[in-house]
Amino acid sequence: MRLPGLVLIVIVLLVPSFWFFKLAGQYPAVALFSQYLGAAALIAMGMAQILAARLPGSEMVFGGLDRIYLLHKWLAVFAMVCLGLHDVIDAEIDGLGRETLLMDIAEDVGEIALYGLLILVFVTLTTFIPYIYWRWSHQFIGVFFALGVFHYLFIQKPFHIADPLSLYILFFCVAGILSYLYMVLIYRRIPGPARYRVSETIAYEGATEIVLTPLNKAIRHRAGQFAFFGFDQPELAEIHPFTISGAPSDSGELRICVKALGRYTRALTKQIKPEMPVRVFGAFGRFRLPQVKDQQIWIGAGIGITPFMAWVRSFDAAHPGHRVHLYYSVRSDGNVPFVNELRALADGDPNFQLTVHNSGRQGRLTATDILRDHEPHMATAYVSFCGPEALANQMRSELVKAGLKPSRFLNEEFEIRSSIGLLKIAQWLLKRIR
Fold it and tell me: In the predicted model, is pLDDT for residue 346 greater than 80?
């Protein structure tokens, strides 16, 4: 994430503390702290909903959309920690006036919101729950957030609802609810800024490359970016992100490669056909080809090869300035996506080296395989990675130990459902119990 975005988030969350600090001399500090935690939770959830709306300019502040989704997840985790503490630490303050029926209802609604959000965040972080159930349940997170806002509006507070502190909190509440409604009710139904049609499909083993031709104004993108695609078929209407595997072109043509990994992608690879209309939203992401003359090491695992295909397809006369070694991890020797094209490039370009690593025969690609070729100049190399999060963490850790500068390990972090160690914690507890 970019530093300005992180600083902005911290400031936004800390601002209410100054108003609560001014109230410390009039009311119990413990209760005020609990109320601040509740306010911080609402602000964090509101910010998370705003970030999920993919607003123009957000990538300039926070980094690529992959980083934005990562921030979205951690804001939700932070909010749940604050809500849990708010529920445990007594927030009631005597002498604020007589309680009403509406206040009692607001207390009960707050409990419903808390436990509803806890369940939904748990489902998000528990990655063994199938994606289809997570996606369905995640749609209700805005409902429980709205219930939390109702709780805030009608409980007793040591300040008036029209005071600057309250208006500050309400701004993020309203903005968050509007962002949620926009994504649920409007974003998925608008025709999109660009409409395309499928002009060609290229079948590979377990994957299909889809070529799209614009019907109106084409989107503008850079090599390595991704976009959201909605195929106009009942079973394929879900808007889904795919990395663009083709280079930017004057014709506006787009290429994406779809691997049949889940219910949606399996259905897409089976049902895709020429002339099918497609809505395209984007482009997003900041995973771009480093413009440096130092040695570049690219690591593409499985379908993670797609941004690198966009990079090599965007090579022009200036390419001799790039020295690239691409490691492509595959699972078979069959009709693997893009292998023949990459081999042809490697045969004709002395500055482009290709290593196809068959994990089915050779075992998992590791940092040792990379260091075997590049350890002497690791301190000056740039490493770009696209693939599973676990492999990215292992590669980063071991290559940095071998001399790679941390800032020169570039990767996209697009696993919003990463478990933040929940599975490891559960395994550790089971081991201790046994």
Answer: yes
